[in-house]
# Entry
Amino acid sequence: MRIRPVAALAGALMGLSALVLPIAAARAAAGGHPPVVVGHRGAAAYAPENTLASIDAAHRRGITWVENDVQRTKDGELVVLHDTSLARTTNVKKLFPGRSPWNVGDFTLREVKKLDAGSWYGARFKGVRVPTLEEYLDEVEHNGQRLLMELKNPELYPGIERQALRELRDEGWLNGSHLKRRLIVQSFNADAIRKVHRMNPAIKTGFLGSPSVADLPKYAAYCDQINPPHTAVTPHYVTAVHHLKGPHHRRLELYTWTVDDAKSAVRAAGQGVDGVISNKPDVARKALHNDGY
# Structure
């Protein structure tokens, strides 16, 4: 059966309104602003994740917030890399074939700096290196961007919380302006976030995961954000998070990940989230009509 043009147009308009109305409501609830858009591992759909090239790819697309992952080398240097192992995103198997499973913590910074962290993604990124946290912070600062910094697997690196805060301080990221609007520290490890809050209560913090509604008040004692995967987000859960105040006496926020298509971004906004973390942040921003974030 053929659909008449008028009926097809009406159906399309109804579908559009179903997408637009929730986001309009979410904007109103957030004081007129759509969710903040954060580039996941920089802009991981356009450049090798967690590299300076990925930060710059986000910057070229006008993305202000970027997210990264911080780990530690064998000789105690902080580097930006997602996986516990270097195998997926570098040529470590080729250069160091006998050192399986190629964990970050088993290599010195000098060894890590020999690795190609770009060729796996594409030939034009050949020679891109794994950045140190210092190098990463410098590039984010140079671009005028903001940072959602994840402490990755902190249980593997005793004391990394204090070390990361020391690095942030030395690079000027713990002054008033950065703390107020340019830095969030998050982790899947609640103990790590609790430590960060205890060591510097001024830092905005986030817990990665979706605690039960009953447990949310415990997290609100030291977390400013609850950041679950987008598949776990419901309007009820967002409302439960927003009902609480975090350690800075402001409404608890919710950033969700990883939102890589327009439909998912609009759905998340309709559920009332405060931020979306995306490998394609420009796609999410366009869908949300996000001007300036």
Q: What stands out?
A: Residues 36 and 255 are 8 Å apart (CA to CA). Residues 1-21 have pLDDT under 50 and may be disordered.
